[in-house]
Request: fold
Amino acid sequence: MTLIDEFTRECLAIRVARRINSFGVIETMADVMLERGVPEHIRSDNGAEMTAKIVRGWFAKLGAKTLYIEPGSPWENGYCESFNGKLRDECLNGEIFYSLKEAKVVIQQWRKHYNTVRPHSALRYRPPAPEVILTLPAVLTGTPSPALTAFLPDAADADKLVERLNRLLLHGTMSDAARKTVVTAVNKLKLTDTLRRVKLAVNLMLVSIDYQVQK
Reply:
């Protein structure tokens, strides 16, 4: 299962599994929505996992509208089909996977490369989501940096950044304004990461209950 932002062309998620059901769709979508927000529309094919009653009901509760393409008309979902072709040509056709875990690791590494490094012709040969580097001057001058206070979906990355900022507070020399900025950033990182874990756990728990009831 691949999930593409049609505006930025960024690959938001790739779910690698031997079989993907409606619960897998909801789990993947919930993880992305907690980070990026709920989209106005979701375009997809007419696969059973996407058209399931529980999935359509979940989308409706969130306020997201579905845009199902006509059966046998993959060109109506051109952005996703184009991405799938690149995934197949540049990654899958050159690999032999001996386990599901290996497939997940290799494909996620390719997804990161696609988002942050690989040039995209429709974006003037720039990657969809290039990585940014947090420079010390932005911290030391007390200027809030979007990269510093950004919502981090990966708990490990958030913990590492908090640890680095705490070391900076202990051993760095900075103005009171800069120190206040760093403290605020640390608190935001801790809070958003905790809220993400709680929201995701509650969301998936409710979905699991609905799924079991309808099953």
Summary: Strands lie at 2-4, 11-14, 41-44, 65-68. Confidence is low (pLDDT under 50) at residues 134-155.
